[in-house]
Specification:
Length: about 240
Amino acid sequence: MEYHICKSRNEMGEQAARQAAEIMKQSIREKGTANIILATGASQFETIKALVGISGIDWSKVVMFHLDEYVGMPESHPASFRKYLKERFIAHVPELKASYFVEGDKGDPEQECERLNRIISEHPVDVALAGIGENGHLAFNDPPADFETESPYIVVELDEACRKQQMGEGWFPELEDVPRKAISMSVKQIMKSKNIICSVPDRRKAEAVKHCLTGDVTNMHPASILQNHPNCTIYLDSESASLL
């Protein structure tokens, strides 16, 4: 794992996007396709905006998975991660080969996990774009995170710190409006990605960044597991890096 401190959120997003684009281009050259994972949330605004603006990516050879979605959340809701990605990513790359969304409101969430598990097992991931939560979560794997499950997607309970972050970012008006369950990509599945790129801005993430980058690897700081990944790069801005 390595990290880079950028001067601004925009620089952070641009650097993360450029690295992701080069990995995708190389994968397409070598095997004719690129499988990617995209995260959502406020931390990913700049990265995704920069990524869709990069020239030379043959999007018709790119397959996208996304990290997580609330259980019971309709796509029409302002906080829906499917809505987020369709507006900020899919709309700008309509020639995308395929996109596999977590349908958190379609029947039994366990059955939805099984559907996604079958698909992603046939698509080794070349690069995962992710973030780190205020509580150190990776995707929606809140502490104490499950580091052992082999299932690619799992149903998880969201802790209060995670739910407060979602409200604080403006996705929900009140804490009680934030769902208590989600479907999340598991920690082991994220770690199977050949490359991981994290974009982590803002002072509110500084404590989590300090623990996850410099502390022990522990499921109480889930993103600390990234220390064990051979090809993980984390992009910070000056505020998120303020305690390093």
